[in-house]
Model the fold of this input.
Amino acid sequence: MKVCVVGSGGREHAFAKTLSTEAEVVITPGSAGIEGSTPEPATAIDADLYVIGPEVPLVNGLADELRASGHYVFGPGSDGALLEASKAWMKDLVHAAGVPTAGYASFGENQIEEVAGFLLTLEPPYVVKTDGLAAGKGVLVTDDYEEAVSDARNKLSGVSFGDAGRRIVIEEGLVGPELSLFALCDGQQAVLIPTSAQDHKRLRDDDCGPNTGGMGCYSPMPGMSSADLDELMDLAVHPTVEELKKRGIDYRGVLFAGFMMTKDGPKLLEYNVRFGDPEAQVILPRFEGNLSETLLEVAKGNLTTQPIVSADAMVTVVLASEGYPTSPRTGDVIHGMDDAKTIEGVTVFCAGVDSNIQGELVTNGGRVLNVCGRAPTLGAAREIAYKAVDAISWPGMQHRTDIGASIETSINREGIK
Done:
């Protein structure tokens, strides 16, 4: 089988590396650090299966275009991609489906007074989200009312995120550990990928600093049984798929559900229409069985294979450029990556790299590398990952030192029914 992976980041590198053990893989546009990269667009590549990694091409209708040409595609059309393209649309859909979620209201331009009034009805923390895509950085969570109003004003005016922020969603703040769950959807049913993950969004240790696209992740979460995950599927994912079907949406791809495990039970935070980044890097390598055949079944609308994931643990640490997430510096030579790869249990995925005229890998984005450790336990996987991190360097390199260090083990399950 020939598989075309669309994208250029660490998630797509994880797809390409995992799929390459069983299929011929070409990745577009890829990068200097990813084998099989080509500048040819996906529409010019003849493949048996197309796997679209990032959300932007999904929202822009690449899956629709490829399917119209008779190809099999893992990834929803632009109608299903609205789950991520519009937070207001997503909230309205899950509300109609009866899925527990945070209280919310949406606002457009020239409604800042209404925003200020609605915020007064809420208790902190306040959550202000861009309605459109913002690369994981369009969410403010704050206890400061004035900061929330100011952030909403900047978003609605287009100052912060351009057109993506000219409509916003204000949500009640939820408190508790977060959990990421993934399901494969073939247009008719959703099938759980039997593991969980927890992302670390803040730039600095102890969840301080600005939100990012993700600074690290670990999987699985301790204390979450397969029965617990099945209950979350019943609570949110299955009703969501039924509501999509009611609306005539043939959703084929992955559904990434983010939950907050509150004292009142789990509540859905958001859906993404692609694998998380960096969650994919700690889940895809643990896939057992033939991943390409499973994804092809999804693309054909006839998923019969039950996904199986290794019981091993994985921890990934994101290495980022100086200035990330606002103005990352690029062009710095990356040292020590080959040494890191010699450590047993280590995999390094390239998220934002290029090569210079000397053929050396250099930084070419905010999040540059995903350094992963794999072992039978989370503690051992974390130790392996950070041993590899210590081998890598470039000027101004940023990373968190606490990925997976204070793992939540007392997940509250009251309300999972």
